C-alpha cells in the first residue's frame, strides 16, 4: 500500500496465477495507483516491492493482465522488466465495450 499525507494513493497484491499445481511457481500482480498521481514513481515502487516479494517467496514468474487501453500500466510493467507475451482478444467487458487484455510476464530466476 502506498500512502501520501495519510491517504492511500495506491496498492498492489500478488495472487496465484492459476489453481493447478503446475502453475504454483507463478503469481499474478494487481496494481492500482490513483489516476491523478501517475508518473510520480508510486507504481514503480509498488511493482518493485511485488517483484521482490515474489522473488523472496521463491516464485519463478510474475504475470500481469492489463487492458490494452491502460497504456501507462503497460509502460510501467515494461520498464520494470515485464515482456508482452500475448493479447487476449475481447476477453473482458466493461461499460458495454469489449476489452482486449495484454498478458505480460516477468521471469524472476534464470531458466532451468
TrEMBL record:
Keyword annotations from UniProtKB, A to Z: Acyltransferase, Transferase
Pfam families per UniProt: Acetyltransf_4
Keyword Acyltransferase: yes
Location of the N-acetyltransferase domain: 1-109
GO molecular function, one term: acyltransferase activity, transferring groups other than amino-acyl groups
Keyword Transferase (UniProt): yes
Coiled coil: none
InterPro entries: Acyl_CoA_acyltransferase (IPR016181), GNAT_dom (IPR000182)
PANTHER family the UniProt entry points to: N-ACETYLTRANSFERASE, UPF0039 PROTEIN C11D3.02C
Record-given protein name: Unannotated protein
